[in-house]
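S.,

Sequence below, as promised.
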Amino acid sequence: MEIWINPDCSKCRTAVSALDDAGIEYTVRRYLDEPPTVAELETLLARLGLEPWDIARMGEDAARKLDSLPREAGHRDAWLEVMAANPILIQRPIITADESRAVVARDDQSLSDIISEG
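The prediction came back faster than expected:
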């Protein structure tokens, strides 16, 4: 199990605490320090069953780079490029549970679900 976090994020700290409390072994990836590649984002999105715009943090200043990009398949690669170059735009925390499943653990239910599968 791996968790992508920003240590300054309260939701990330909550998720890490919940994993610790559950006794689950995991690896931490500080994705702002170790940004994912486009290929890693593609793999992650396949596991999440989502598109790049579904996990974009549009309230960030860097999101202006995404404002002009339509949320459609023909612009997917551009979204991925911008997000890989600006990892602050990636929603957090993201937990990869196994070879096929991942979740954006921003709410209690998603976090509970992934821990119960732990």
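The helical segments are 10-21, 38-48, 64-67, 76-85, 108-117.

Coffee later?
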